[in-house]
Queue: 4 jobs
Job 1
Amino acid sequence: MLIFLNHLINGISLGSVYAIIALGYTMVYGIAKMLNFAHGDVIMVGAYICFFSVSSFNLPPAVGVVLAVLACTALGIVIERLAYKPLRQATSLAVLITAIGVSYFLQNGAQLLWTSNIKMFPSFFSASPIGLFGGELKITIAAIVTVAACVVIMLGLTWFTGRTRMGKAMRACSEDKAAAQLMGINVNATISMTFAIGSALAAIAGVLFCSVYPTLTPTTGSMPGIKAFTAAVFGGIGSIPGALLGGVLLGVIEIFASAYISTQMSNAIVFAVLIVVLLVRPSGLLGKQVREKV
Amino acid sequence: MKKIRLSKTNRINFATFGAVILAYAVFQFMSGTGMLSSTIRGQLVPICAYVTMALSLNLTVGVLGELSLGHAGFMSVGAFAGAVAAAALPIDSDPLRLAASMVIAALAAAAAGTLVGIPVLRLNGDYLAIVTLAFGQIIKSIMENLYIGIDARGLHFSFLENRIIFRDGGRMLLNGAMGVNGIAKISSFTAGFVLVMLVLAVIFNLVDSRAGRAIMALRDNRIAAESVGIPVTKYKLMAFVISAAMAGAAGALFALGQNTITANKFDFNTSILILVFVVLGGQGNMWGSILAATFLTVLPETRAMRGLADYRMLVYAVVLILVMLATNNPTIQDFINTRFRRKKKKGGAAK
Amino acid sequence: MSEQQKNSYPKPKLVPVPSTNIIPERDVDKRPILECRHLGIDFGGLTAVDDFNMAIGRTEIAGLIGPNGAGKTTVFNLLTKVYQPTRGTVMIDGRDTAGKTTIQVSHMGVARTFQNIRLFGNLTVEDNVKAGLHEHTKYSALSGIFRLPSYWRKEREAHERALELLSIFDMQDMAGYQAGSLPYGAQRRLEIVRALATNPSLLLLDEPAAGMNPSETAELMNNIRKIRDTFQIAIMLIEHDMNLVMGVCEGICVLNFGRIIAKGTPDDIQANPAVIEAYLGRQKEA
């Protein structure tokens, strides 16, 4: 039973990281109707920035995180302006390929700058876990921080999109850009803001992910990116609660599959579950069932 | 037989065939007279394989109009099926064994395509794409954990762990994550050329037929296709399975030109690579796929690019982004449309 | 349309059939091609169509009119199973269509055009028509790939049939043009040709005259009659152009807020106060 709970906690913790990444995908999809394949690599960049801040410049971890967030936010805005904005009228496939180009660019740029030697991400949290139930159930500080961060981010985003002007502008743009523009909303600024938020979240996710899986290479962001993207679709692409649900479920399924069925096949099982869910609910768990107008 | 008036499409098709035949003749000549560097010569078979992959993916993306992000999975199935078949088949003649292996690979990939196609059919757009991505990952995981061995009693299979016990002197063919080793390289440029020609012929003939019209109709407007009674599911599956079979044959060709193949050679990155070929060459444009696949496979190996050494992939990425930006720029698009587009009614209203 | 033209075309006598439906007298011996009884659909809490009863004679030209949002296209969608009805039955040529799909209903002989034109934009005009011929000029995919004799034979058949159908609207010279590049009116006509290619017993036209000028509309009226007379099929139109409706339709059904408010000949409908109120509103008390 306690082992089960251990796995559950690990799953929720990993899932929280996926959820944070998935949020970036889902928000950008909601507003720009594009799948930002470069998102996973922004995570990697954030992790590297933090790594170098702490290891090479001996800055305190909090500063490292802030720097990573700032760098990624800037990166996200720049990418959007240079590579995606000119393609707003293009087919979604064209934008997808461009996003892939950006992804290649980031990965290879990182490789040139920082080599593909594995960097060991420093642990920010004390390694000794908190013991409950007489020391049987071990919860790492990292796990607690991760889940807490995810909850805070979710609540913050829900408040932001529901209550603030910019948040409402985002929701308007994701419904109908042309109409939003006619209402006086600055669509360009809103889209840039969305990318900024998504990228900032990516930086945080990068730090959290590497706290648990400390090997850092230019391709570190790739697999979590794919999985988080899957989680976003799983939960219903475009839905913020969907990203949370999808991410956490995916993390839990991954850990349980790895523990109880097979570590080697855990990825396959995760993807298989996704397929089954999409067959039953073709728009994802919380996705809108959009009826095509005939 | 009544003379068939050649329409413009037919002329383009024949031109494409002609160009491929010409290219083959030229390259074969250059290769034979030692004009090609050994690097390029070594790339001839992979080029044919990637061209076939691009053509087959174009059938799904360009003709059927659905995004597939797991195409490398079918290549993978074909590669391993082909490699195992080539090692196990008791055929002495290399070309015959190659041909048989490629056929087996195509059938195996077609079976995989059917398995994937059935769940995929219910979905559309981005969700379909995600499911193809998921299947690509699943296939990769399966191949990494599959063990196949052969001895006097025949083939033995094992999954997740290698529990194969040999009698009468056997050997491992597929060794899980280690892949297949010691492959006898029986692929040839000629075989690659034949494959490309066959695949082109099948695609052109399919597109210019009742089935092809049905597939393109459901791409252009699924609801309208249903309203004229076209069985949408059947044709979606058809396109998918044919595309998978071709990818499988390409995989076998590729594998039998290498010493070793492992499952991680056919991962998401490979799927994306092929997708880039198709999009750059133009969706539905077979000639474009051939050019893009050839050019982009050869390009990293040329002296110019090798000179850039580490910056090679970075330059590739930048060029890719710039090309996408350029081809989707409205000014440039209008230019292309007015010069090269098919006949339009004068003063035709926009869609 | 002049009075003379209107009067010179023989007006059919409408007779009631069991239930409150009416069909042309000449069709009364044959089974109605379409019969709807108590057809209705709810979308969540909203009832879009309710208690829709209608019969169409085998060679009748019927009209379905009503203000915007009345549910007319929804009725078409119910007949073609784009939506599954919540209640009621639809019988095509006496066969119940419960549980059937759009594709199956098409095979039963129902063809339609769409309010927002749905052509196969990247295909040629001829290929659009050939797509309509899909279920009638058949050969296997393998035959197409390997170019067996049946391919050549059937393709020639399809080609000839397509040109024949296009000639109804004098469009045979446009056969090689890309469908998506045609002018609006031509696209509408092509959609009708494609629907006819499926050899239907019932043709549903959704606002066929939308965007047409009066001379084009008059031509369309003649073409609709020509189609009915040549193919001996039933046609149902949704239309807002009253000249067209009153000029060509034999039996008209008026819909408002998802319910039928009147049924009858053009003369009946034009005089019906409920219809006038639905379109123009009630006259204010003096």
Job 2
Amino acid sequence: MSASGPGPTVSFRYDGAALTAPAGSTIAAALIGNGILSWRMTRRRGEPRGLFCGIGQCQDCLVDVNESPALRACQVFVRDGDDIAASRSVGWRDAD
Amino acid sequence: MTVALPPARGAEDPPAAAEIVVIGAGLVGAACAHALATAGRGVCVIDRAGPVAGTTAGGEGNILVSDKVPGPEAGLALRSARLWRELADRAEGRFEFEQKGGVVVAHDDEQLTALRALARAQRDGGVDAELLDGPGLRAAEPHISPGLPGGVFYPQDCQVQPMLAASWLLAEASRLGAHLAWGADVLAGEGHDRITAVQTSRGRIAAGAVVNAAGPWSGLVAERLGGRLPIRPRRGHILVTEPLPPLIRHKVYESDYVTTVMSDSDDAACSAVVEGTRAGTVLIGSSREFAGFDRRPSLPVLTAMAARATAIFPFLTGVRVLRSYVGFRPASPDHLPVIGADTTVAGLYHASGHEGAGIGLAPATAELVTALLAGSTPPVDPAPFAPARLAAAEGLA
């Protein structure tokens, strides 16, 4: 599945699946363009979450990108080769 | 999907008469209402806005004995910590009560010597305090800065989610028959020398007695009721981080926090207070300043707080801050709570002036208020907290 438009595209992985998106997309746009509407579960009740406010305020769209946990998908641009995973919604995991 | 909401409490009009009117539905007012209703008194709680609309929602939920220098407030804090544990047992986990303990850290040997002297004096007053050397400090808090020489562990310090706790206390009071009426602003009191009624924006309530638990607004409420209470809002900031795995085990703060609490300067004073919450977020305080009720956050203050917190927990430099908030503490001129009868209006009682300790001191405050209203002897001597001391200090007595 792909969400390529007429311009340049980038390739990335989401939970292991190879996907593409128009270059310059936010991760949220890239995922939604591939039909993925939810990319994390809430920590307590396990309810699905995805894009809500879209402007960096609500913290609902957190996603794990490469080695960085809990980034806001609406505020980060997808880059070629990104390895994106559904988020555990908890940041800064390398304490030890 | 529809969600079935519980019937709204506080929507009904206030009753025409109540044995005792409690003004303020923050934690202090909620604790007073709960204690009075438990003692069989007829209670009506009113609030200008609604439950936990003010200071209770603007703080951290600390129940501390560690930051009290030996004296009357320390006795009240010890009593209150015990009452909190009893309430938490009854609430069965409904308000995130944690007896997590507090760790106070020193930055250098001079601070450590002073901190240890304070801890020894506190021990004589019944506070549990365990001296920690550098390795002991790192055993208690594995992610703490390796440069810190030591500190003191206070196992009696607790944490609570104050909004949940106040809501639980109000719900319990309501179950025991208390009326709750929100959106009722106090306009004036009635009666000569003795208060007989409170006029509110939602009607008049004839009252046998009135408890003023309006926090930083309690001075204004006292004035409208014909009394006097010199309470000023002392502003504080808190930073909230993204949710993290549990990395900070205790409430951790700098030893100069106590000095900051006791200072009288109008300028912003900062000292680091860091703690994790059940939700995973880390709360970073603290600041104290007299800036009226200005809700605009101060970037220099937030920056100073963050710098101090990262000096204690270096890993915080890699953690995102989600938001900040400000709150207003009810500050009395001598930094002691003001609990007891107004000096001029009979039947008016104040439960205020706790500054940043209102959450922790609320149950013991409620116990004092309940005893004073019943004419009985409370377990803690109320004399040091009497409003009359302030009038005397001002030459008004």
Job 3
Amino acid sequence: MIIQILLLSGLVLFSILAILLKDLLKAALSLAVASLFLGIIFFRLGASYAGVFEISVVAGLITVLFALTVALTRKDSEVQEARLTRLVFPLFFVIFLIIDGLVMRSLLQQVPALPAGPETGTFGDVLWKARTFDLVAQLGVILAGVLAVLALFRKKEEDKDE
Amino acid sequence: MSNLWFLYLFFSALLIFTGIYCLLTMRNLIKLFIAVEVISKGVSLVIIATGAVKNSILLAQSLAITYIVVEVSLVATALALIINIYKKNKSLDVRSLSKLKG
């Protein structure tokens, strides 16, 4: 329980750092560390496949994409944020923390425990047989993403002729 | 185990709050997508934690993996869009997008 709370606190802490740090590269790295914490939490909950995906894809690939974007837009990319944004955040965060704690505490006493039933089969059975439609949709999403990126980076016709 | 579920809900609500705060207050486009990522972390934490509590971790994992794939596709497209916006406007300020003609 204590380890879980520490991991969850680390996840929230690095997510906050990712948002508050001015340097975008450091922010992207903080996000990667937060993903690492989330992956470890997934492993501890017994979701090893999701943990592997979280660490390899989100902590790895998405961080690389963010770093690449930061590198490509570094020059003159400084954006003047409102001064109060970072100063007021701790105040709002503490207020939300208290409200969140109170709401969860009241829910704990009122909401009945979720009905739980044992699951049969393996992860492969569930993914390939029960969620086949999801896999087809994933293929569609990946294809759409690739086509969108290709469309966004295409060159003008005149450039091709030159 | 139900107590543990509320603990996960508590922390994921914090993540979602942090992301929404950033979305509402920040102006840098890359920061806005970092906020979207933070919100998605909160959501995937809820999916897996609920699956673990309900003893349906296999289904939750398959949903989380689908979610991660969608997230990657979204981020790749959005970052490509951000680079194009930067090329056009020479700025990552979200307010510069309100000066569109037409």
Job 4
Amino acid sequence: MAEPVRSCVVALEINGEQVELEVPARRLLVHFIRDDLGLTGTHIGCDTGNCGACTIHLDGEPVKSCMALAVQADGGTITTVEGLSADGELTPLQQAFNAHHALQCGYCTPGMLMSASALLARNPRPTEDEVRYALQGNICRCTGYVNIVEAVVAAGGGA
Amino acid sequence: MTTVTDQPTTTLKKGFVGQSIPRKEDRRLVQGKGTFFDDVRRHGMGYVHFVRSPYGHARIVSIDVSKALELEGVYGTITGDEVAIHTDPFFEMSVEPGGLIKDYALAVGRARHMGEPVAAVCAATRELARDAAELIEVEYDPLPVLVDAEEALKNEVVLHDDAGSNVVWSGVFDWGDVDTALAEADHVVKIDRLHFHRFSSTPLECAGALVEYDKGTGEWTLTCNHQMPGVGAIWMAPALRVGIDKLRFVTHDIGGGFGNKICLHPQYVVLCLMARKLGRPVQWTEWRTDQHTANAHGNERTFLDVEVGVRSDGEMTGFKVRALDDCGAFPRYEPLGCIIWAQVTPGMYSWRNIRVDFTQVCTNKSPVSPNRGYSRMQHLWLTERIVDIVASELGLDPVEVRKRNYVKTEQMPYETPNGCVYDSGDYAAALDIALDLIDHGSVEERRKEAAARGKLLGFGIGSTLDSGTNNFGQSTLLNPELQFSGNNEAASVKLDIFGEVVVTLGTVPQGQGHETTAAQVVADILGCSPDQVNVRRGHDTWFNSHAGFSGTYASQFAFTGLGAVKGAAELVREDMVQLAAAVLQAPVEAIELADGFARIKDGPPEAALPFMALGAIVNANNAFLPPEFNPTLNHRYVCRPYFGMVDTEKKTGQLTLTYATQIHAAIVEVDPETGEVDVVDYAAVDDCGVRINPQIVEGQVHGATAHAIGAALSEEFVYDEEGTLLTANFYDYHVPHAMDMPPLKTGAMESPSPVAPLGAKGMGEGGGGGIHCICAAIQDALRAAGGAIVYDSCNPPHRVWSMLQDVEKTRANVRVEAK
Amino acid sequence: MLLPEVEYARPATVDEAVSLLATHDGARPLAGGQTIVNVMKARAGAPDVLVDLADLHELRSIGFSSDGRLEIGAMVTYAQLMASSEVDVARPILAEVAATIGDVQVRNRGTVGGNVCVSDPTNHLPPLFAALDATFTIRGQSGERTVSSEEFFVGVYMTAVAEGELLTKVNVPASSGAGDGFAGLTIGKHGTYIVNAAASVSGGAARIAIGCVGATPVRATEMEERLAGGDFSEDSARAAAAGLGASLDPPSDVHGSADFRRHLAEVSAVRAVIQAAGRRKR
């Protein structure tokens, strides 16, 4: 890619599927995921990259998709909340969220699950403090985080 | 004196009600399969961007949309001039002069707050709409800006020429005899000024709607997140000059409301006009910055010239205050805030002599809307500040002063000086639970330990009431001409042909778990499991399961929402029992509903009809039923709580029906070098009567506490003299993140409500207990450093540091006059 | 929230990147995007061309130069700093401070180069690098040059990196027994700083840089002079900090008045020095 372009083809893997689409350079990754690919589980809660509702996994790492351009993800691998579980089979983490009442309106929940699942992948039995640190980039206005932290600790077997 | 009529209560056998069953909503939400309005698409839809005033106050000289219209992909625009032609101003609730304010869907001729929508443009994509907005040229002529409520009273700068005054409403509430109480008191504690600051709950999902117009029927469908569509329609239909049935509100999942999604009618009217004008569906999603600048702050209230009468034995006999409320540029839901506080006039306390001189003004700030704790929170903060200041100035123990002055459980139901009735509760017992959870006995030891580390430790209590089930008749105490009284909520329950139980709600949940709690109630009444009860998500006008005041607000779902569900379920139950009796040829009294069957109690196993059999008979196989017996298995019920009438002269009456208690306690450590406040321990005790789902109740307590802690320590909407909002995003308007929350211990007790259909009081708003106790804890901490008096509800480091630097300035605010 | 039209290029080498930056008007590097995307969303800035540095792997390394200095590539992320054994051995304060920048998501993308090139007065790394006496290597079409912290930070959002140039690495002296400290007041836990201070103490000398009080990090030179004797006790640090606030001209905003910031500067400087002194390896 030598010369600057206004739009280009983005090829990436998302939730195990290959996708190839021409996108404007200015399109945010979160709008690409929601509007172009129709994966509306990833949400938008702010304009300044603070709230984390847009968190997805890019090449295995939790990242705020509103703070990246779609074109930056070319060649990458993305997992969104829709890719966490296979067809209706809730993961232990999702089940823990349900059991511990870790969601009320559910709007921050996809982002929370992405951050929490990334934590559990590298730290299977996190302490409460480690969970809070891992979720610091995800704002919730409903739960006060109490049950969310409890659910993640429980999912890690550390209840 | 108002008479209280007890609502008939049915004792439900404890089955699913009372259990913390996991929520039905969660399955779709944890998979990202929820449907929030921005997830919905329509073929050919356009995206709308609002052009907003950058000025706090300005005359709109001209708007030129021509360049925007030239941009390819732009479908159209709309300006204030068009709005003024095609719509009428929204109806105002206040008396004159406030009632003369003209409030249109877009600024007409004048912009009155930063962020006020001035024009709108619709285009094929979000980005194009945003680009086109940049091409709309608006010429402004800046006007002097008013950002101070006391300045507003002078009427030197007047926001609304039609009203001629900035005063939206003004009146004096006077109960008992406060002048005598003050004259006879042993001490009069005077507080010159207390300030309850401007903040809001900032739900994570912003407001918005997708609006479609049917040109054949003239009906609009709004797929949206309005949390009180009954009232939304009452504003919008006359403005659009159409009948109310032309507006169909459809909600699915909503990402939090907290009262911030009640006054969306101005933007929604713009969308309706554009959908009709452009002949295509139009969609608007609010940006976070727009929500902060232009949608729904909480009421900002200044309390002046407070005087409190106290006897030597610590009994508080009464108080008077001048309250000045700042509602921002347009009243909208106001002036209701000017009376709603009166639901809790005496707070938790038994004083009988209270005078409140209340004025509400407009300023060049974002309009307010009923933010979580609406108007009661502000007033309860006042009463708690009073108690703490009285305690500290008279050398009394804040726990003892509260217990001495609390309304006692033996006095319940307790009629307040203005005719409200506190239905039940044991404040002293709840306080004891809180003190125990926080290990109150160890406070002095912890104080010494903290001091050794250079920190000032403080302990504080915040007692608060979450009043619920609103009597809209209280609006007539502000404006006797208003035709509002009582309250209502509706629900429908039916048994389908295949025996599936389907419930539709009039309420509009935004996370409160209504699908689950409604299923629990219905399951117990019909004798099945909550899994067999399908509660439809969201609200739809066409469900016809709503009433004039339908919505989720005012902490009333457990009363009115579930009351409606209970009523409808009982009607269906009645049908089922009678039908089963007819089919099984048994007396009605012999029929029970259990385990998904209608059967003869203790009868043979074959004398049992599954729900499916009942549904099939009524819907498809009913010829054998006698003509006079017409069960439908499909009932809509309106829960209409009984309040009696209010007295507009004495300004008394039952303004609300249930009172949940929340007692909060906090221990903080203040860093005297930086003013930083660290909450190191926290307890919240809730008593909302019968808890339908204890885990859901506790979740609400957690959430209300987080909102209060954020408000108490960092969340503040601050304006400069130009009317620019300085805290318009989450960097500067800091809300609690996971690491900001203290260790939170919760406790609960249940004082069933004698007036609620299920003994369950409304709850959820919380009453701001966290703000009250953190202010108290900070003041307690500062006793060791000069004894500054906390005067503002928000205490970020810079304010705490200022208080430490100039203790005398805060103390000059308070005087004690002894006999 | 939505970006204006922009062009995008993803070069494969540093030379290609420099060439793109030099050739196109209004071209800006795109590193982690944690600042520039926000700036573009807010329409506070509108580059014409974004030159994505993602493929420039040579800018992602952490190692030691021949003279034992810690070399950090400009595209090293905060998360990489935290995970680096080289950083842990040579200058752990970098990892410690990086661990408080924003949150996990930000740290996975945000870069050292981005943090310093933005030169936002409230950023964490500029005062820290100033206290550590870091140097900055800049590549342009005419070659490479290395500048000091004082020369690098020029003003608000302005550094010595000119148009058509690219920061390639930051060098920090190995600590050799020095102790480093960082203190301040943030808006909420791990939030934006209101005032911060970085200190590096070794032998009988201290380097102290204050952030958030000026356009660029301010060295507390008088305080450093008073501490030159090697007494880093709390009393000595407090005495040395006297007058520091009065020498500053910080901004006033919703989070604090100028006076509050002056006071916080003194408090933070003292705390950073005490922390640094306590971590010296003898």
